[in-house]
Amino acid sequence: MPKNPPESMQRSLRQRLNEHAAARWPALAGIEVRHRAGFAYVDGRLPDGEVLKLCRLRFTGRLHTWGFAIWLASRDAYEDNFLPTGLPAGSPEEALDCACGLYLGDPTAWSQALKD
User: Fold this and answer.
1) Which domain holds residue 85?
2) Any domain includes 2
3) Per the structure, how many domains does the chain have?
4) Residue pLDDT, tens place only, 11-26
């Protein structure tokens, strides 16, 4: 079974995603991250307490590059996918922007990713 990243990396990932969400996604009250079997499951918390499943990140052994799977509400499952850059892996912030662009209705997140 794949291992989770060390606790220090888990804390760093949680902090990075919460900081990015606060700066880019004001509709979110926060980000929740849970780890299991080498994956980080990323949920967004709305101000009213509702929790939105957003994406799943696959630990690659590096803090700055994670595999990406989007939550598909229509299938009630995660599906490996590509980021707007065309790559199946990238930064946690890119993954968050891609998922939030879909679930918070802001496709400018995808065009911004292509500019960076």
Assistant:
1) 7-115
2) no
3) 1
4) 999 999 999 999 999 9
